[in-house]
Amino acid sequence: MPESLTLEQVARAARVSTATVSRIINGTGTVSAHKRAAVMEAIERLGYRPNMMAQALARGSTMSVGVLTPDIASPFYSAVLRGVERGFGGSGYHPVFASEEWRVSSASDSLDLLVSRRVDAMIVLGGNTPLDRLRELAGLMPLVVLGRELPGLEGQCLEVDQTVGAEQATHHLLALGHRRIVHLAGPEDHADARARLAGYRRALRDAGVPEAPELIVPGDFSEAGGHAATEALLAAGVPFTAIFAANDQSSAGAQLALFRRGLRVPTDLSVVGFDDIPGSAFERPPLTTVRQPTGDMGQAAAAMVLALLRGEQPSMPTFRAALVERESTAPVPTVRSNARGRKKG
Amino acid sequence: MPESLTLEQVARAARVSTATVSRIINGTGTVSAHKRAAVMEAIERLGYRPNMMAQALARGSTMSVGVLTPDIASPFYSAVLRGVERGFGGSGYHPVFASEEWRVSSASDSLDLLVSRRVDAMIVLGGNTPLDRLRELAGLMPLVVLGRELPGLEGQCLEVDQTVGAEQATHHLLALGHRRIVHLAGPEDHADARARLAGYRRALRDAGVPEAPELIVPGDFSEAGGHAATEALLAAGVPFTAIFAANDQSSAGAQLALFRRGLRVPTDLSVVGFDDIPGSAFERPPLTTVRQPTGDMGQAAAAMVLALLRGEQPSMPTFRAALVERESTAPVPTVRSNARGRKKG
DNA sequence: CTGTTAGCGCTTTCAG
DNA sequence: CTGAAAGCGCTAACAG
Q1: Do A73 and B62 touch (CB under 8 A)?
Q2: B18 lies in some domain
Q3: What is the pTM of this model?
Q4: Chain B residues within 8 A of A117 when measuring between CB atoms
Q5: How is A276-311 classified by DSSP, letter by letter?
Q6: B104 contact A CB<8A
């Protein structure tokens, strides 16, 4: 492996000082057109790329921001990540991704890694990071948290109201006449999951529909979890006409369980999901779900970090989850008659 | 923001020299238990985290390897990424992800960024990076390429034989009696897509089934692309009894088009995909597809890089794509009779 | 076993 | 406008 080029070699090749080359690279100070041309030529010819490590050390800033994500392979988080990338475009800063699963060693985790990398700021997605670590972090550098409300750090937490979204979803089902609505919940230790459950409950309460404990079943946001929970429900013979799943992935698992029993969606049962991940619009039938503006959220998080880095007060856009009515929901089937009219609307 | 701690401050606090602290942190050299304890205590109490930038500069190595991916949000690539993460576990090296979409500026792309970051090695996924840049890179540092065969760099290219996988898929359909099999192709400039098309063709040829140009339709690996192409086929009235999609995502789009026309899978038509992304096992019906060992591939790529970094000759595991028969395929429907027996097997 | 001392490649005063 | 020189925080000889 050839040693990589240094600023000094470029300077030598262009017959100028290292300071001059540095000025040109960074656009700081003024340099004569003559020398500038010589330096540019040398950089080009030699294929020089500044060593960011050295730049960071000398400058005291890495021009990078850490992005901590629970799972880099999740359709939801990766959509947010894309937004974050977009948000940093052209800012000079670039994102450094780290997934929570990743352990450098038993003693240090991804967060430590990012801190060691001396990122200038951090964006934390999701809620698995211990609160105290987050507080400590907030004292160290600009921090924006997505999807969790941190007591004392409200101004740096970007959230969409999951509760309202879940309420809308449940209300939609209620309006279609459903009364026995299953909620396929997410992990109990997940803030969003709890908020969605709360929205489900509120909608039922507001509609005066009593909550049935047996209709709230535990899931884990995965297809397999949704499948298992629904399977269990069916096996137990619990009656229901609709499922509101805590996310799209678990709704897919639930639907497979229905499918196995020959139950049709939305004819026999209605299903609504949450998130509106890319594939959901193409399910058969296309899934009615609650859309989260993932890309925009990521982009906004990046914008907030950038503002914080500039020492400005970041503006906090409000995001709302909104129901996307597609084709997995329909009026509750009438048992005693087949008089479901053919009238439009 | 508090300035972050330096090695020197720790050394001062522990009343030892910086060299001693460095030795302890890196496990190089031997240090008396007494001083070691004092240093550990200081590190702990102060919350010291080494500055990787400085370490990298001093050491001449960043202990990081760049991972370039076409799209961080793709279910396929992100599964590979997970494998890569696993593969680096405990090695001391850590992955730095960059997606090709991301542009630092008009002049420099993700690859430049990774080079600037002085990653010690690189893993490139997929085939969008210009060949000459890859060659140049290979001269600079250990490089492993996944999913592309680079002339002259065969030893560093990890591939699964896409052609054989596609052949299996097509053969499976052929064995079920299908003759009018659509191939919903991937992007023409994508090596894997071309290989899958080649496999489709080879299977047809081997079976003595003539290739019908109108059955090979262009897609782009997306749900929307699959939907549009299938829609067009249906609108044109082209007869066919099965679809072999170049990937699972486009197969979902295709299925939506069928669904819109009231066509049932696998009763009326059979569909097979490629990749076996996480959701495919939970489609209704579960999708018959060609599985790629994504996680293993990622892990193997990491292992190869690690070997290269140690100066060893990396071993090249062979991966094969294998058909996973699920429920989206069935014997071609008999038009003139409904005599499809009820015999098992 | 431990401290001293050169750098690593780059930015940034500070003089010219 | 430009160069010299002093670090940035850490590692790695090199002496003790």
Answers
A1: no
A2: yes
A3: 0.90
A4: 52-53
A5: --GGGGGSSSPPBEEE--HHHHHHHHHHHHHHHHTT
A6: yes
